[in-house]
Amino acid sequence: MADLLDLTVAEAAAKIAAGEISADEYGAAWRAAAAGDELNAYLWTADGADALETDWNGDGESAPAGEGDATPYGSNAPAPAASGPLAGIPIAIKDIFTTQGIPTTAGSRILEGYRPPYTASAVRRLTAAGAHVLGKTNMDEFAMGSSNENSAYGPVLNPWDRGRVPGGSSGGSAAAVAGGLAPAALGTDTGGSIRQPASLCGIVGLKPTYGAISRFGMIAFASSLDQCGPFTRDVTDAALLLGVLQGKDPLDSTSVGIEGGIALPTREDLAGLRFGVPRELGEATLDAGVRAVFEATVARIEELGGQIVEITLPHAEHGISAYYVIAPAEASSNLARFDGVRYGLREAGDEDLIEMYERTRSEGFGAEVKRRIMLGTYALSSGYYDAYYGQAQKVRTRIAQDFDTAFAEVDFVITPTSPSVAFGLGAKTDDPLAMYLNDFFTVPMSLAGIPAIALPAGLAAPEDGGAGAPQLPVGFQIAAPAFAEQKLLDAAHALEGALGFAAAVGDALPWKGGARA
Amino acid sequence: MPDTALEAVIGLEIHVQLSTRTKMFCGCELSFGDDPNVHTCPICLAHPGVLPVPNEEAIRYALKIGMALGCEIAPRSIFHRKNYFYPDNPKAYQISQYDIPICGAGKLGDIRITRAHLEEDAAKSIHLGDSGRIHGSGASLVDFNRGGTPLVEIVTEPDLRGAAEAAEWARLLRETVRQLGVSDVNMEEGSLRVDANVSVRPAGSTELGTKTELKNMNSFRFLQRGIEAELERQRELLGAGGTVEQETLHFDPASGELTSLRSKEEAHDYRYFPEPDLVAIAPTEALLAEARDSLPELPAARTARYEAELGLDEAQARLLAGDPEQAGYFEAVVAAVGEGAEPRVVANWVTGELTAALRASEDAERPEPGVLADLIGAVASKQVSHAGGKQVLAILVADRDADVAEVVEREGLAQMGGDDGELAGIVAAAIAGDPAAAEQIRSGNGKAIGAIVGAVMRETGGRADGGEVNRLIREQLGL
Amino acid sequence: MAVDAAGRGPPRIVPVIDREQVLHVARLSRLRLDDDEVETMAGELSGILEHVDRIRGLDLEGVEPTSHVVHLENVLRADVPWQSMPPAVALAAAPEPFDGAFRVPSPQADAD
């Protein structure tokens, strides 16, 4: 059985299509693995099979999952297609995506027990390609967090060291893939919520260009920044999933898709490609081990024929400030719909409407969500809009211009993904600002809307670990111009091959049979 | 004492529900009077994760309204979110337009339009009444069928100077929007809602006084009465040395009273910001041309043309222009009559005699324009008397195949002239039959002539020309 | 930022958010905070705002704000009805369904 779970998605899909392995056996093996979750990575698994009956028209049939459906929901929940590039592949879905009849909480108490009447477009694209929903993964409440400690359903543990965080906000998805509980997972990234947990868990995480994948059915945190993307063990699987997920969706006005689609990458060298290293990195606060891995990776790029060029991103240092105005501002509006009227939690307050609102929201939302709602409301409120929100949007323009200038010179911009390796549970929960600074390297790309991939590049000892602490994965980030995903994946594939991360770690990889046992 | 030297300054805010097939941002059908919550989907119930996509037809309708009101069309406009909590506002923000509306400054009649923008309607709450709890203010039920209906909000400059003028202008606006075919404009059903901003100031002043906002006036009559009541209140208040407080007032048509809608909540802070889920609207040349080409001749323009080109008086012109179907018929009759009668005479027949004849019977139908033209021509050339013409018309509206000449012949309604002596004989007999009246006429009582005329008309079955009868009576009495 | 007619510049904004402001923002957000939470929130928000305040000093006069990185226009939907949800589905998740509708406590009466 372990053999089946060692296959990458691309390998398994090929073997299923060729009839070399049984889709049923493969699916059952993954459902059993997911059911054995000890990381608190899942909030719901298909093994429990408690999906709500959603047979609206009473014909007992599941609706065929088609692309480009006119309505956001069938009369029945979509069923996986029998064939397609992902036929028979179970995929873990971050609990921020709506799934018809299947509990969807976004990690919040306010949605406890909520079963949506429709399925997210990204999930429909997966099922239309033959994939199955393996489970719904734990996350920071409404995707607000960098450690997954803000979930109303308990923190997720890092499979490399269960005393440490997996990163966030898509911590459950990252831990599920890294921990051998799913072959691949769907996450969302607003300021780093795919790249940072991928980095802390030693797997590949891709944040595509804003607009590449539909946001319909992704519970909104910051609408102008949120983007869906895959967690996979390798770059090829990331390309395979992106190819299925990308596309214009009539239900999302801001979706564009990627022209020409995505082919599986085969490139093995970096000759002729220019990689920009921001000059500002020199002054950045960064763990020594992380810096060492970054420098070794830069050397590897040069060995592969890539050229390293110093660039400058003068406004990137203001990324966190702009982000922590824009994202909370949009969130304060997006989360206002959780009011106890139409779905979700309602705390009694029968005497008065305002009391009902306040009790429902105060008891339904956790501390971090309340903090960001307050911050965002403040930034948008009368008298402060220009000073905060207006100014942050201008900083955003400047950051995007910095990238434009850089991309006139180079093909990619490279940075570490996160300033440190995975930190201990509880280490930063009392200092929201310290937690926010985790996103220092990932936020600028989010503000510019450009694609970026996090690759596991090596191991480093945690600085808070003491002697003999196990080494932990370090991520490497490559960013590319908008919609240059194909080029990004090709380069990442070449670098991945040269780094040989998985081969070097070998059986110590948490998803390998040995570690799982 | 109300200070009548204070001039009224009134601006209107009009919400027009568009009569598209579906809602502004989702594909649920629009309806009126259906069971609650049968036209809802995850989008208009604001389930987590949903996104809006604008209705193309609503954009077209908004452009038509903007063009009809002479507004500048924004080359690029965006949507904003207006944030506030209320059960009928499911996202807790309304998608509206803020600093860049789709239609900018314009004018209808003499009144300047500030803007016209697109937004979505709220759902409907029905108050259940007191629940009987100690602190209970009862409960409400929310029905989301209406939620998300496309709206165009039209805002005027404070150019109106009286309640009657405001109501009359609002009627013109309604008629204009109705003729565009973009809304039912039914005030009772709420597809047209008019709020008024009312203030007063010393006549001749250019500064604006503190205004109040009047809501819930669901007919033009109530609009006028509400504004009248508020003007009187403000004039009295200021006359007594008081000051007007800026507030929202609710008009109760039953009592005619205005009550303040002051709530315990803090002042509104809507925290407008650009809606990140939507992209800009930049009307293409094709879209603009399509809207422009589909504009009918609107009431204000038609009224002006009837006055200038056809010589109609203003009241008559406006009456016709207010009903484009009738106006079209009128123009067809004018064309068919040609030189046979003045357009003013045709207008009198169409809006007067014909309307009355149609009202007389349920089965009555308008005659072909050529047929009515024949009749009007016959009356104008005195072949048929006016009274006889009305009798012919009664037959024409009942029988679409009838021919004017044939009806006149069959019914013996050809006008009696004075030439053949027949009418003179009937007049002589009538004078002889009422010597008392004849004596009174001779002694100077002109009114007594009516009795003799009546007798002649009875005798001729209305075929005689009234003027000719009068002339013959006077002639025969030697006056 | 524009200077108004009276010649005043933009209002100087004290970055540190005080107790009253916290309560005001909480009311706007429909959140109820107890006394301890108000204190904690005031401290935490002040810390974040001090950091965020760095961007307020930047000279960005004339820079266009970016509210969106997608440069699309006129993404519209044809006016064609789709199938709405059966009312039972619409009300399935409602905390208090009542007679085919969503029941809520009434807003406070308008009168004081």
Task: Write the topology of this structure.
The complex is a heterotrimer of chains A (517), B (479) and C (112).
Chain A: H1 2-6, H2 9-17, H3 23-35, E1 42-45, E2 63-64, E3 78-79, E4 90-94, H4 121-128, E5 132-137, H5 171-178, E6 185-189, H6 195-201, E7 204-207, E8 227-232, H7 235-245, E9 274-278, H8 288-303, E10 307-311, H9 319-334, H10 353-364, H11 367-380, H12 386-409, E11 412-416, H13 432-436, H14 443-448, E12 452-460, E13 472-479, H15 485-499, H16 501-505, H17 513-516
Chain B: E1 6-17, H1 56-68, E2 80-83, E3 93-96, E4 106-108, E5 111-120, E6 124-127, E7 139-143, E8 150-156, H2 163-180, E9 192-202, E10 212-217, H3 220-239, E11 248-252, E12 257-260, E13 273-274, H4 285-293, H5 299-310, H6 314-321, H7 324-337, H8 343-360, H9 369-380, H10 386-398, H11 404-411, H12 422-433, H13 435-442, H14 449-460, H15 466-476
Parallel strand pairs in B: 10-11
Antiparallel strand pairs in B: 1-8, 1-9, 2-3, 2-13, 4-5, 5-8, 6-7, 9-10, 11-12
Helix pairs in contact in B: 1-4, 2-3, 5-6, 7-8, 7-9, 8-10, 9-10, 10-11, 12-14, 12-15, 14-15
Chain C: H1 19-28, H2 35-52, H3 87-90, E1 97-98, E2 101-105
Antiparallel strand pairs in C: 1-2
Helix pairs in contact in C: 1-2
